[in-house]
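Q&A log
Question type: sequence-to-structure
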Amino acid sequence: MELGPALFLVACAAAGFGTTYLSGLPLNLEERIVFGAVLGATLVAATTFVPALLWRDVTPATVSLGLMVGLAVGAAGVYVGRRRMVGDWADARRRWPSWWPLLLVLLVCGAWTVHFLHQAYVYTPAGLFAGYVNIWGDWAAHLSFAGSFAYGHNFPPEYPVDPGHRLGYPFMIDFFAADLIPLGLSLTEALTATSAMLGLALPGVIYLAALRFTASRSASVIAVFVFLLSGGLGFVRLLSDIQTGGLAVLQHLPHEYTLNRDINLQWLNPVLAYIVPQRSTLFGFTLALIVLVFIWVAIRENLGWPAYAFSGIVAGLMPVYHVHAYGTVVALALFWAVMNRRREWFAYFAPALLIGVPIVVWMLPPQNTSICGGAPSIGGYCIQLGWLSPTDWQRYLWLFPFDFAWFWIWNTSLLAPLIIAGHLLVRWFPTAFPRWFAPMWLWFVVPNVVILQPWNWDNTKFFVFWALLGSVVVGGVIAGMLQRGRAVAIAAVAFLMLVCLSGFLDLYRASDFAVSSAEFTDAGGLKVAQWVRQNTSPYAVFAVADDHNSPIPTLAGRRELVGYTAWLWTYGLGDYIQRGDDDKRVLDGDPTAPALVKKYGVDYVMIGPQEIAIGGSRAYWDAHGKVVYDDGEYVIYRLGS
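Response status: OK
Response body:
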């Protein structure tokens, strides 16, 4: 990484470290360091966004100004907490031996993260390759969003893949990446660097949160790996793979073991389903845990208004970083407030709602695009009892409990049974955390009844928070078993392997570039994207194929008439069908093309391999547009005068 971007990220972490002293919370040094890395990125993303919004561009000046504001906030925190900071350092030196579990977690998880992200994007003479299928897929949207900020003057933010709609996706992780581009990183490097910063912090945040919730270092270490290696019983397929291909299959695993819809394996490992591809969860998971820890400490230490207010401010900003995390810290906090009634809760909920609700309203999708068919619905949201579990029970009702229970064991192994055991073994927890976790079962029950997203699989966006906090309960149960005799300890190790083995196999396979990589775009795509960035207006609109990996929105940072329509459907953008049809008419040279070009304000048409594959007509546009770029493979036509 270039020195400038590296110093910027370090400065963000430093600002966050100082900001923790404004909370009034008695955190220890390691919490301030790890939590501060996330809070600093959160703070600086916000302080750099404001000048960029006013200037309508991301420039070295907007980045520098925002960073200075963030550092000023951190410096104020250091000044306010200067006496406490001295005590924190003394306390840390005294407790130094107790740091080793945290360092172990950071080392093990960091080694995989660095290796994996090092090959996230690889440039070759043939083109650009993505190191994992969900980077090839989902990161295309993140490239488009980040590129629209860095290259496309996308302020106020709108969907570059469906211009005219407010950008309702939690975009701050991608704006944060855009901050690094004026400092010298490429677009792909910026995504990788920001994922690395927050991805390296995430295991530490989980560990430290679990340590607060369980008061057990062993339980906290286990909780980290229970969540990050979460998976079902799909590892049993490895036996048949070995029988078929021999031990050689272990070098390059042939498929994933946590996701196979043919056999109803739906619980893709959270790292590969969310932390890697969705990116915004890097803020969502960490901020949710940090805010909940802050509230937890405030309750247990009987702290006053400032601690609650600080937590509420952080919570209030969260929707633009991750909406589902915001909903979690507000809803769960409401249950906790009922369990521990005190006036200070007003200091939490006031900023959490006054700041957060307007952001949520601004981000709401234009419409609910759920498709229920003949299934019952509530307010347009489909009822699907048991989520994706087998439907045999619809003929034989008595089968439902068995189908439902087996589905979740098949998909998540012993995760749910061990969480339930935590409620029964609450005395094993010095802090009685299972009781405070209990409301999170709603994050499991409700999505098993109502499909809360247009795509039913996306209900995992709710289940995953149940799994995240539930992993802490599981950590406590397994740690307790390890202390209760040899036989019980052996069972505990077996349970841990059953929960984690499938996820381990999938993470191992995902880090194998030989089997997990895919070409994102060819050399011609890289060249045309560079030309577009340098030779077209940042506000230009292109008609291109609606493939997710078109080089125009993803690498050039330009708006397109319509993007990948499956995404637009899940974003709640109901015009995707009409726009998709109109985009094809434009590319095909349909008689309505001139009117559609005028309707959508299209400035350029590109005819390349992806467009030709769906019927794009060079002959038509040779006659009706002006060729401004032609490398024999990709041709760009300028429209109008």
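Response note: The two ends are 43 Å apart (CA to CA).
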